[in-house]
Amino acid sequence: MKITHAYAAQDAKAKLAPFEFQPRELREKDVQIEILFCGVCHSDLHQARNEWRNTIYPVVPGHEIVGRVTAVGTQASKYKQGDIVGVGCLVDSCRSCPSCQEGLEQYCENGFVGTYNGTDRFDGSNTYGGYSSQIVVHEDFVLRVPENLELAGVAPLLCAGITTYSPLRHWNVGPGHKVGIVGLGGLGHMGVKLAHAMGAKVVLFTTSPSKIEDGKRLGADEVVISKDADQMAQHANSFDFILNTVAAQHDLDQFTTLLKRDGTMTLVGVPEHSHPSPAVFNLIFKRRSIAGSLIGGIAETQEMLDFCGKHGITSDIEMIDMDYINEAYERMLKSDVKYRFVIDIKSLRKQVA
Ligand code: NAP
Ligand code: ZN
Ligand code: ZN
Q1: pTM here?
Q2: What is the mean pLDDT of residues 55-65?
Q3: Where are the transmembrane segments (predicted)?
Q4: Residue 352 in contact with residue 18, Cβ under 8 Å?
Q5: CA-to-CA distance for 166 and 296, rounded, in angstroms?
Q6: Which residues line the pocket of ligand 1, CB cutoff 6 A?
Q7: Which ligand is nearest to the CA of 102?
Q8: In a 3-state reduction of DSSP, which class is residue 212?
Q9: Is 35 helix (H, G, I), strand (E, B) or coil?
């Protein structure tokens, strides 16, 4: 099989740079995908820089993948050459534990296999992600892409979309609910769009006054500057649910006090350094909860893609060439992304041609 061209980080301090590797030979149920677009998730940056202290180098990030099927294994039946497909954060799991049996592969009790920085269950090799020209994945972890959606804007749905869709569904967000989305980045802007499409009243919390107009355009009924204590106080005790997507350590109490009795704030951001411990009084006096949520299972990811197809939802993107990735990371750290970088993988092919 032809060599895969990619971008990798060789250690926590290194910039991402060209890298090549030999893909595995197709197994019976594998699908080989020529990658067209790959979104840039803040998790890619955390992982490339070893901020979660578990990175295996070299690391090829990227788990928001859209591409075209170029070959399938002898026993693969779900996809055929030419199909447009997606791959998200998972490429395998044990498939037999209670979580896998329930279609919650992201909570696999034996550990799911990540699209990158994961360990292949058969040959023990390190998995490489979507900042690359092609990927080989078991057909059960490949998604169908709705035909009506623009492909570059679909790529971020594979992580940012499902990571916000899954908790919104799990906590039954819908008409009559007042829902807060904290942070207008890749995840947050999908949270705003999805919660709005589910029929909730949506309030966006942002630290960036420059994002107020965009927040409303994307579907927020109201935008609150979270650094403004007076604006925050007006929303005390009023939210059914808050989805917090912030990628950095911050004070959670300013948001828990905005929850109604029995309200929940779910954290999806995974900052390098833990948040300060939340005040217990804020929780016990109104039986409020702080929860967490991890991406979504394969069936729910397909459900999310179909929901986005039905509602015409894609990510707002800034398309970049592969060699812009290091600048893109710096801009992501300054919250300067509107609202997801997506790599045009054509630029990687051109670079090596
Ligand atoms: P992102 O595009 O960088 O967006 C994060 C947003 O957080 C920023 O745009 C900014 O929004 C806000 N923010 C940043 N620094 C802040 C600070 N110091 N205080 C308050 N707000 C701040 O990142 P992303 O790709 O959406 O990812 C967000 C987080 O989710 C990352 O930690 C990522 O690793 C994690 N993640 C988790 C899962 C999961 O399964 N749980 C999946 C994917 C990603 P404003 O400018 O609007 O304030
Ligand atoms: Zn991600
Ligand atoms: Zn399992």
Answers
A1: 0.98
A2: 98
A3: none
A4: yes
A5: 6
A6: 41-43, 46, 159-160, 163, 183-188, 206-208, 211, 245-248, 250, 268-271, 293-295, 332, 335, 337
A7: 3
A8: helix
A9: strand
| Residue 97's pLDDT band (cuts 50, 70, 90) | very high
Which pLDDT score is estimated for 352? 87
Half-sphere exposure of 226 (CA within 13 A, CB side): 23
**Burial (Cβ within 10 Å: 0-12, 13-18, ≥19) of residue 50:** middle
Among residues 242, 241, 170, 169, the alpha carbon closest in space to that of 205 is found at 242
CB-based contacts of 66: which residues, under 8 Å, 6+ apart?
35, 36, 37, 38, 84, 85, 86, 145, 151, 152, 154, 155, 158
Distance 78 CA to ligand 3 centre (A): 21
Distance 55 CA to ligand 2 centre (A): 15
Structure token pair of residue 169: 């569904």
Distance 11 CA to ligand 1 centre (A): 23
The ligand 1 atom nearest the CA atom of 268:
41
Answer yes or no: is pLDDT of 18 > 90: yes
| Statement: residue 85 has pLDDT above 80 | yes
Residue nearest atom 11 of ligand 1, based on CA coordinates: 183
Q: First and final CA of the chain: distance in angstroms?
A: 17
Q: In the chain, what are the domains?
A: 4-159+296-302+314-352 (3.90.180.10), 160-292 (3.40.50.720)
Ligand 1, pocket-test mutation among 49, 112, 207, most atoms within 8 A of CB: 207
Nearest bound ligand to the CA of residue 155: 2
Residue nearest to atom 21 of ligand 1 (CA): 246
Q: Are strands 201-206 and 317-320 parallel, antiparallel or unpaired?
A: unpaired
Ligand that lies nearest to the alpha carbon of residue 317, given by its number in the listed order = 1
